Structure prediction request, 914 residues.
Amino acid sequence: MAVSGPAASPGFGYVTPDNVALLVDLYELAMADSYLRNGMNGRATFALFVRSLPPSREFLVSAGIETALACLETLRFGDEAIRYLRGLHLFSEQFLEYLRDFRFTGDARAVPEGEVFFPPEPLLEISAPRIEAQIVETLLLNTLNFQVMVASKAARSVLAARGRGVVDFSPRRDHGADAALKAARAAYIAGCTGTSNVLAGMLYGIPVVGTMAHSYIMSFSDELEAFRAFARDFPTNTVLLIDTYDTMQGVANAITVGGEMASAGARLRGVRIDSGDLTAQSRAVRAALDAAGLRETQIFLSGDLNEYRIAEMLAQGAAADAFGVGTELGTSADAPSVGGVYKLVEDEKGYRIKLSTGKATLPGRKQVWRRHDPEGQPSGDLLALHDEPGPPGATPMLIPVMQAGRRILSESLVEIRQRCTERLVALPEELKHLDDGAAYHVALSPGLTALRERMRA
Amino acid sequence: MAVSGPAASPGFGYVTPDNVALLVDLYELAMADSYLRNGMNGRATFALFVRSLPPSREFLVSAGIETALACLETLRFGDEAIRYLRGLHLFSEQFLEYLRDFRFTGDARAVPEGEVFFPPEPLLEISAPRIEAQIVETLLLNTLNFQVMVASKAARSVLAARGRGVVDFSPRRDHGADAALKAARAAYIAGCTGTSNVLAGMLYGIPVVGTMAHSYIMSFSDELEAFRAFARDFPTNTVLLIDTYDTMQGVANAITVGGEMASAGARLRGVRIDSGDLTAQSRAVRAALDAAGLRETQIFLSGDLNEYRIAEMLAQGAAADAFGVGTELGTSADAPSVGGVYKLVEDEKGYRIKLSTGKATLPGRKQVWRRHDPEGQPSGDLLALHDEPGPPGATPMLIPVMQAGRRILSESLVEIRQRCTERLVALPEELKHLDDGAAYHVALSPGLTALRERMRA
Prediction:
């Protein structure tokens, strides 16, 4: 089906709480209308899961659950939406009436944000009247695929930085406004220390970070004058960009200003290098700062960084206190999508399974049981039916997060981030390395295996 | 500088007209505050341009200008934003007062949406008081980098489809909600015929397209029953997904339903194949439909498509009327960012230039002159200073689009799309091919060359 709507309102085109319900693939609404007309609105369960790891990834990080649940909780089809849908001359009046009163009333279970998970474990299970569960597919996938992608990518830079700070510098290359916000959120979950994105700071309470651009330096008659102006204007947060003209001359100017600040009772917080041989320059800059007594002045490195460059620079002895990572982090450049899917696994008639090659699904509601070795390191997961008993001592990873359309899990971003930090620390060493190839073991339970075989036959 | 804000409001975190002004890298605001304190708010011009083509691209398509201008026109720092910024204990009260009254009052020149452009031609030039021009950098780059990326990627599928329809199926893999909207918009500009995204349909008037999912078929006791239900519920827009179980049995069922529809005075609009060997299946399905007299029933192909697969399938004789393209289109998977930058080129003191290796800029406001051969095919561009005379008969590509903060260009999306279609048709053949390597010639004018040499020296 292909239908043209009324004339467009041009301009920015914001997604708002009033219109986000229409962020849906048309076919979801068409199927929902048909289900309604055919009396097919029994309870169904859909599982959201990733079939296989993206290239260069050895684990995924849960992120976006809170965002998704907040959407589900407030989802409404307002007057404008109903008017637009009616104008498509596609839907039944009965369905439009249904949408006018639409509320998501289902239950959800999820792997909490900040946890590590592995394909094909469900990240989220939705149990609801079939129409409700169907209509939210696009929005759930759009929300979770992206935040999982960024958190999983950012975790790699955080691991590579071995305790040093990693800051999200991605807004100018993120895919639009919402991506910039959610990239900051997901990166913070994964352990980034802050973001340059002020709106993410306001909406999520993420620490905001920034220095100055080369154009600032170039707007003054010389570098020293620019540094002095910035130190005067921001004495408690002076980080000077020293590579506009010549990095060693830049650090000399920064040292001059650092001395002047010290005389005035202030402190030069840091310098940033954004181009050239960052490893060699950072070592020379560190030596110069130390020789001048500015041992506490930090060094920030940026400029087309990713986890590989961070690891390489540190292996070569770079002197860095923090890294700014932009494009690669926000777009997950080496794997710019996560292939999460949302599949029917159970309905009022029983278990459901899809058999197509490469697109097979596992039937039924599930639980993921994670085993740990005595040191607390995960040693393998068991993917089971939700009502199978778990192995002794294993931890269930899916927990109830929404009941009858209301969130029953509320966590601060700081708690989530703390969880992720602990999980990354506890990861088996071979999964922490950047090189590909290590595989974490996810086994199917006897119950799930038997059910699948029975349904295949 | 790194500053923590107040506690976060959790949840979806929407970007709205009231808060979009804070979608800015912190350093833009810090620099702006410093400029204000130091009386440095003279008129400046910044150019937004792409330094070099992304991998596998031979041209770029202008997109996002309207979105960006709508933002500039309405940009405000509301009470919540000012409160948040004050709480960072970073900015001067003078600057916060300035932001409270902030309006963008500048001028803009741009390459209209739908035009083809080439690095390093400016896509947009902003002339405004320095602080205004500086503050909008992040938002402009975030908006334009993404829409240019998608339009340039989508144009490749449109060219590969050689007149057949290409539909945006990307929402579930796009990077968040705004990306899904803007991907649909940019893809439509590039010539896509529609989108699955209902919200994009409502906000931009883009035709919305959809069929059904495999789960719909599986929700009925058999395929034929599912097809009949759908045809009954959507008699004017019946497109049946025929590959859930077996494509040839699927088309047989579709033919049965098509016959029943014909008896009732309706028509089976199309069938969709989403998996397997699309080329071979589409030919067999076409033959079966034709043999049954359903010559007007169209065939839609989908499933991990991109421009290469479309070209390959058509070369092998696939029978397709339209293609659904998702992940690859919305994330521009082979080149998931466009490296647009925004650089100072002129201020109250004169021309400005940046000399760093790999990051050099060209000074001054500019004009791009495009020459055409007698057949109307672009034959090379001349990048000149804005006040240099252009070559006889050449077309100036940058036109005024905003004056004193108000848009002076208003185009419908349909007009923009029409322009893009014409430009893609007129492209030199070697740029239309998917293979890499052809290069369109962009020359520097004598005036620009001389100015650059003078400033380098």
